[in-house]
Amino acid sequence: MAAARCPSLVLMLLLSCCAAAAADEKLTHLHFYFHEVEAGAPNATIVSVVSLNKSAPAFGDVEVFDNELREGPDPASRLIGRAQGFGVNASLDGSSIFTAIDFVFSGDYGEYTGSTLTTQGQLDPTGGPSERSIVGGTGKLRFARGYMKSRLQSSTNTTSVFVFDMYFTLAH
Ligand SMILES: *[C@@H]1O[C@H](CO)[C@@H](O)[C@H](O)[C@H]1NC(C)=O
Ligand SMILES: *[C@@H]1O[C@H](CO)[C@@H](O)[C@H](O)[C@H]1NC(C)=O
Ligand SMILES: *[C@@H]1O[C@H](CO)[C@@H](O)[C@H](O)[C@H]1NC(C)=O
Ligand SMILES: *[C@@H]1O[C@H](CO)[C@@H](O)[C@H](O)[C@H]1NC(C)=O
Hints:
It is a single chain. This protein is mainly beta. The chain has a single domain (26-170), classed as Beta Barrel (AOC barrel-like), CATH 2.40.480. It is built from 1 helix and 9 strands, in the order αβββββββββ. The protein has an 8-stranded antiparallel β-barrel with strand order 1-3-4-5-6-7-8-9. The radius of gyration is 21 Å and the shape is globular. The chain binds 2-acetamido-2-deoxy-beta-D-glucopyranose (4 copies).
């Protein structure tokens, strides 16, 4: 009897395990805005670290930023975190900027407060639509995998607002 029961127990465990994995595969979508204050302006959130040619953008240039993440395009909308990372001009033809950014949800962002998403990829330097990879996460966002879409929404002479859509699964 015991021997007969064991295989069915194993099967049951396997089935419940697969059901849990399938449930976690659902795609999560986050939508928010990134507010950047240009280098040189008061309270700038981006600095130029390497500028190889003072008179023009050049291959090898590096910028570091710590931009605000807000619920909306309005700078007074709810603060949900920060986008901390760097951009490197890693294309000789100027067609893209390589970025590595941690999205740190440190503000008021419900269940994701205290969690992070880590991203990497190519940004269109003209502000056009860009798709980059979500390569991981921490806290409630552990094992995140997916992609993010972004584009320039609006800008002034000292600020830029980008809209972000993150799509990921938490499969593990
Ligand atoms: C810069 O930040 C300080 C401190 O938060 C604030 O009082 C000031 O109004 C800000 N200046 C601008 C131009 O945003
Ligand atoms: C720096 O940029 C200017 C303007 O594009 C260009 O004329 C000059 O040749 C560049 N200098 C170097 C060292 O590449
Ligand atoms: C990146 O470097 C290339 C080659 O020097 C240059 O043509 C392009 O303008 C630079 N782009 C940016 C955004 O720095
Ligand atoms: C940026 O725009 C503001 C008004 O929108 C203006 O007062 C300021 O002089 C401009 N700054 C530069 C560097 O063009």
